[in-house]
Specification:
six-stranded parallel sheet, 2 domains
Length: about 240
């Protein structure tokens, strides 16, 4: 494919592995707290937490933009709700350990930086658009030295708006000085990086990092699906 004038990139689980496979991560945490959870099996505790988290973030009535900026607090509420018979000190400690574990296990996807470098070398204008608290997301960007690859970095907590709000995409387009029709959006979230940008006329590329394929009940149909960022480069 011919490269566009600009590409908007998601960060978490697109450029870096950050939140994938939550049940696996909760399982690790639960096993660390197995003594305190006894006689409950750690895996059943992990499954209860993961289910509660899915319900929490899937609740359409909840203002997710608030909780994305208070992620640790959200996790504390989730664990407490999933394990209501346990002391709050324990459930808070598990939420805090989960947060540290996620940070410890975070890594760049193979080929991500090399792809960004090559796209920029070929003259593509690039913006990073990520939701979440400013301090948390900025730390990730600095940890992996990502800012230098982008012409514009846009963090929800720093700007006061985020995906899937229309102005999040329009602000990025304006910052790059490009139009929607000459721009791609790349990310793993079918609402934030596919449905919402498509409504503005942006070409939406869904990043399927685990190669699971498009869910049968997918809320949107991507213009293109990739399993590696390297696939963005012309062959």
């Amino acid at each position: 494919m011919i490269l566009p004038r600009a590409i908007l990139f998601d960060l978490d689980d697109t450029i870096i592995s950050a939140y994938a496979r939550p049940l696996v991560a909760w399982g690790k945490v639960a096993r660390e707290f197995a003594g305190a959870l006894a006689p409950r099996d750690p895996q059943s505790a992990a499954e209860a937490i993961a289910a509660e988290a899915m319900a929490f973030w899937g609740d359409a009535e909840r203002d997710h933009s608030v909780w994305r900026l208070r992620l640790l607090e959200a996790r504390r509420l989730i664990v407490a709700a999933a394990l209501p018979t346990y002391d709050r000190a324990l459930t808070d400690a598990m939420a805090e350990r989960f947060t540290r574990l996620r940070d410890e296990e975070m890594y760049l996807f193979p080929g991500a930086v090399e792809t960004l470098q090559e796209l920029r070398r070929q003259g593509v204008l690039m913006a990073l658009i990520t939701n979440g608290a400013g301090e948390v997301q900025r730390a990730k960007i600095e940890r992996f030295a990502l800012a230098a690859h982008f012409h514009h970095v846009q963090i929800e907590g720093e700007h006061g708006f985020g995906k899937p709000e229309e102005r999040a995409y329009r602000h990025a387009l304006g910052s790059l000085g490009v139009g929607a029709a000459e721009t791609w959006m790349v990310g793993d979230n079918l609402e934030w990086e596919v449905a919402a940008p498509q409504r503005l006329g942006i070409y939406a590329i869904w990043y399927d990092g685990e190669g699971k394929g498009l869910p049968a009940n997918a809320p949107a149909r991507p213009d293109r699906i990739i399993t590696s960022l390297r696939e963005l480069l012309p062959r």
